[in-house]
């Protein structure tokens, strides 16, 4: 898999792809340094290089395409800082305030964009409400996208981000999809790091190793015109929010397969982008599933009940083929209905590196795991049902920033329960391996203090 692309690949074969052409035009106008990027046409299924450092990434960028009147682009070096005079109290661990997911840190990042002036200098400023016109485009036409990330206080007492370059590149792809202005992902990352460095020391003190803050970079169209058209004004902002430790899913989560009247995403739509419109319509079904005793919806698509996502997380299954091969299977990205999750990507890369027997093969032996074939393809819930009935289903799990790696114990589909084995009692063996391996990188433990996926933040 290549780095998360600026635009999705065009599989339609059409001479003209209006969405892709529109994205290229917008890139030329709002972020010309990205317009000629190789990721514009990279296939999402190519082999990924290691992520470059910011300096290396800058040195590899193509020469920007010149425009008639180039407007300012997003530039983190121009950030202005205004520090709060009324610092907020840090919630006590285990308190209702911590669990409310409403308490944010002292500061936030903002950057304004207009079609006539380009990107204004970003600011680090006290956290507070936004000012929007009631006619703002984001309130009427869902011109809003975001990312979900975490700032970790490691067990080695350092602050870390996990593969933040991927989140920043994916956010660029999301803004492209909904007609918001483009930006250099490295500049967004620099702003995120600035906020984390400013508030991390106080809000993730060193006496709280193993805790995290949730990071929410967001872009909205603030254009006050009610016309249904490409927004002429936008606001980028980044905030840090207190979250309690996520609930223990070690007993396994129960999924309710979606019904025929439900659809989360569809080919040619925007399921691959992290936009608000993907989430609001799913909340009714999610609420009903929880009333019935299930944790989330397993989203299916089409008459063949193709598996897409589990709630807002990517879905994985481990099974044996009828020929006896052990496989790790997840939905591919070809139809653009599944999010290219950072945790998903990391699990696939880790599996190919350490569990296929082709490179660091000692990992499988050390974990007493059988080597496994990694497969990304379209597959259906009927295949899972058949594998379970034939004793070939090994385990299943969901993966994402919020749930992280959560074992699945049951799937309810058309009146029947598919029981999913959990070889370790509270988890499957492969889910446990991926969870422990990635946790070591995120928390700076188990010899992973200097792993390339862990981005250390220097505290101010």
From TrEMBL:
Annotated stretches, region: Disordered: 31-68
Enzyme Commission number(s): 2.6.1.42
Residue spans of biased composition, Low complexity class: 45-58
Transmembrane segments: none
Compositional bias of kind Polar residues: 31-44, 59-68
Residues where N6-(pyridoxal phosphate)lysine is found: 274
GO terms of biological process kind: L-leucine biosynthetic process; L-valine biosynthetic process
Highest taxon of the lineage: Eukaryota
Required cofactor(s): pyridoxal 5'-phosphate
SUPFAM superfamilies documented for this protein: D-aminoacid aminotransferase-like PLP-dependent enzymes (SSF56752)
This protein's record includes keyword Transferase: yes
Gene3D superfamilies attached to this UniProt entry: 3.30.470.10, D-amino Acid Aminotransferase, subunit A, domain 2
Gene Ontology cellular-component annotations: mitochondrion
Record flagged with keyword Hydrolase: no
GO MF entries: branched-chain-amino-acid transaminase activity
Keywords: Amino-acid biosynthesis, Aminotransferase, Branched-chain amino acid biosynthesis, Pyridoxal phosphate, Transferase
Reaction(s) catalysed by this chain's protein: L-isoleucine + 2-oxoglutarate = (S)-3-methyl-2-oxopentanoate + L-glutamate; L-leucine + 2-oxoglutarate = 4-methyl-2-oxopentanoate + L-glutamate; L-valine + 2-oxoglutarate = 3-methyl-2-oxobutanoate + L-glutamate
Family (UniProt): Belongs to the class-IV pyridoxal-phosphate-dependent aminotransferase family.
Protein name: Branched-chain-amino-acid aminotransferase
Record organism: Decorospora gaudefroyi
């Amino acid at each position: 898999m290549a780095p998360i692309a600026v635009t999705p690949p065009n599989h339609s074969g059409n001479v003209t792809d209006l969405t892709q052409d529109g994205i290229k035009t917008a890139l030329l106008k709002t972020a010309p340094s990205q317009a000629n990027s190789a990721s514009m046409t990279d296939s999402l299924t190519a082999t990924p290089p290691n992520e470059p450092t910011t300096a290396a990434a800058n040195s590899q960028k193509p020469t920007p395409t010149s425009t008639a009147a180039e407007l300012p682009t997003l530039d983190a070096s121009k950030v202005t800082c205004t520090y709060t005079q009324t610092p907020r109290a840090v919630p006590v661990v285990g308190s209702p305030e911590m669990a409310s997911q409403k308490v944010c840190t002292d500061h936030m990042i903002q950057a304004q964009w207009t079609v006539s002036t380009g990107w204004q200098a970003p600011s680090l400023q006290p956290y507070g409400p936004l000012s929007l016109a009631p006619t703002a485009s984001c309130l009427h036409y869902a011109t809003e996208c975001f990312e979900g990330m975490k700032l970790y206080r490691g067990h080695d007492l350092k602050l870390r981000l996990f593969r933040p370059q991927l989140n920043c590149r994916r956010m660029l792809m999301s803004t492209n999809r909904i007609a918001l202005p483009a930006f250099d992902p490295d500049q967004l990352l620099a702003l995120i790091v600035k906020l984390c460095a400013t508030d991390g020391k106080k809000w993730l003190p060193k006496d709280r190793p193993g805790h995290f803050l949730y990071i929410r970079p967001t872009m909205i169209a603030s254009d006050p015109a009610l016309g249904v058209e490409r927004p002429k004004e936008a606001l980028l902002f980044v905030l840090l929010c207190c979250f309690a430790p996520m609930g223990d899913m070690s007993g396994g989560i129960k999924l309710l397969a979606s019904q025929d009247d439900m659809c989360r995403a569809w080919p040619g739509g925007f399921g691959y982008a992290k936009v608000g419109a993907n989430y609001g319509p799913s909340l009714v079904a999610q609420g009903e599933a929880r009333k019935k005793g299930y944790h989330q919806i397993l989203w299916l698509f089409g008459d063949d009940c193709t598996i897409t996502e589990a709630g807002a997380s990517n879905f994985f299954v481990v099974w044996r083929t009828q020929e006896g091969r052990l496989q790790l299977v997840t939905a591919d990205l070809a139809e653009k209905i599944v999010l290219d999750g950072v945790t998903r990507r990391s699990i696939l890369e880790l599996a190919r590196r350490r569990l296929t027997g082709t490179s660091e093969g000692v990992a499988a032996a050390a974990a007493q795991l059988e080597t496994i074939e990694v497969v990304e393809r379209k597959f259906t819930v009927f295949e899972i049902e058949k594998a379970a009935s034939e004793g070939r289903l090994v385990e299943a799990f969901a993966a994402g920033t919020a749930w992280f790696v959560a074992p699945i114990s049951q799937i309810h589909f058309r009146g029947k329960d598919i029981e999913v084995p959990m070889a370790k009692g509270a988890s499957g063996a492969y889910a446990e391996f991926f969870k422990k391996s990635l946790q070591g990188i995120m928390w700076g433990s188990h010899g992973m203090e200097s792993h390339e996926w862990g981005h250390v933040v220097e505290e101010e």
